[in-house]
């Protein structure tokens, strides 16, 4: 029986003769169901119609992005460290070429995902590379296909490799997580932010939303807390969820200024 994959968000579901009647992740107000209704695909169909493109973003950071774009269209990021490689966020397609390239780079020692919209086919990646998937326990209800390699963690930080630390910021989801990479940006630090700190079209800005497709804001207090939580962590670059969305310098200042402006607008200070 096939693994069914939601074509709108990329989430995978247990193997059954027929697709699920609905995708709870898309039914949630932070996502959406297309006007034409729920659509499903399978791994075989996805592999036959799509392929993964690669790009090297800096010495030990690689982008993996499915072409043509599938579901939400996010990228996965592979971080190389002296103690093993980490995959940040996930995409639905794991084809033979991608598996071979990841193995050539040293495989994976762990996978970490910012929030449920990017859980996709994490189970298949974990099994292929025999490594754990680190998800914050606050979002455990959104795992649609259980697997013993999924590890739910609690608290505010988790070190998963040398110089690689997960930070729970919440916001978009209660367990919303970013990855701090101390060796990124030539040792100045990098933040891999997913949708939790979203790099905007103006690459000198970031934003913070409850729902991106439905354009629903976060509370001012939540945005202040996110910015304050990041202050002790040095980072010069921010790598967002989508290709081309990266702040290449001054990342910490960009977060501080963007959060301040966001709060000003929420509180009615337009000028």
What does this structure look like?
The chain has one domain: Ribonuclease Z/Hydroxyacylglutathione hydrolase-like (Metallo-beta-lactamase, Chain A). It has seven helices and 20 strands. With 271 residues, it is an alpha+beta fold. β11 (157-161) and β12 form a beta hairpin. The mean pLDDT is 96. 22% of the residues lie in helices and 28% in strands. The chain has a seven-stranded mixed sheet.
Q: Which SSEs are present, and which pair or pack?
A:
Elements: E1 4-6, E2 12-13, H1 24-27, E3 40-42, H2 43-49, E4 51-58, E5 61-67, E6 76-79, E7 86-88, H3 96-104, E8 110-112, H4 122-129, E9 133-136, E10 150-153, E11 157-161, E12 164-168, E13 177-181, H5 184-187, E14 190-194, E15 198-199, E16 206-207, E17 209-211, E18 216-217, H6 220-230, E19 237-240, E20 246-247, H7 251-266
Parallel strand pairs: 7-8, 8-9, 9-10, 14-19
Antiparallel strand pairs: 1-2, 1-3, 4-5, 5-6, 6-7, 11-12, 12-13, 13-14, 15-16, 17-18, 19-20
* Share in β-strands: 25-35%
* Number of E strands: 20
How is the quaternary structure best described? single chain
Give the CATH class: Alpha Beta
The CATH superfamily bears the name Ribonuclease Z/Hydroxyacylglutathione hydrolase-like
What is the distance, rounded to the nearest whole angstrom, between the alpha carbons of the first and last residues?
58 Å
Please identify, by name, the CATH architecture: 4-Layer Sandwich
Domain module tally:
1
Q: Helical percent range?
A: 10-25%
What's a quick, concise take on this entry?
By secondary structure, the chain is an alpha+beta fold. Helix content is 22%, strand content 28%. It has one domain: Ribonuclease Z/Hydroxyacylglutathione hydrolase-like (Metallo-beta-lactamase, Chain A, 4-Layer Sandwich).
């Amino acid at each position: 029986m096939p693994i069914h994959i939601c074509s709108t968000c990329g989430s995978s579901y247990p193997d059954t003769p027929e697709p699920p009647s609905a995708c709870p992740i898309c039914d949630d107000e932070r996502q959406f169901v297309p006007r034409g209704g729920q659509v499903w695909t399978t791994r075989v169909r996805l592999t036959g119609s799509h392929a993964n493109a690669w790009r090297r973003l800096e010495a030990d950071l690689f982008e993996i992005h499915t072409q043509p774009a599938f579901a939400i269209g996010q990228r996965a990021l592979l971080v190389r460290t002296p103690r093993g490689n980490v995959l940040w966020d996930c995409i639905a397609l794991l084809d033979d070429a991608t598996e071979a390239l990841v193995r050539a780079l040293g495989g994976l020692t762990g996978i970490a995902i910012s929030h449920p919209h990017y859980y996709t086919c994490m189970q298949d990646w974990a099994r292929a590379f025999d490594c754990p998937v680190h998800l914050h326990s606050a979002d455990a209800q959104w795992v649609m296909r259980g697997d013993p390699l999924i590890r739910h963690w609690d608290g505010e930080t988790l070190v998963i490799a040398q110089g690689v630390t997960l930070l729970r910021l919440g916001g978009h989801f209660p367990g919303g997580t970013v990855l701090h990479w101390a060796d990124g940006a030539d040792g100045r630090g990098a933040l891999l932010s997913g949708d939790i700190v979203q790099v905007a079209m103006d690459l000198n800005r970031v934003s913070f939303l409850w729902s991106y497709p439905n354009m629903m804001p976060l509370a001012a207090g939540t945005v202040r807390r996110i910015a304050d939580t990041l202050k002790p962590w040095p980072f010069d670059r921010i790598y967002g969820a989508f290709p081309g969305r990266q702040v290449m310098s001054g990342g910490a200042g960009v977060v501080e200024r963007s959060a301040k402006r966001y709060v000003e607008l929420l509180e009615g200070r337009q000028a």
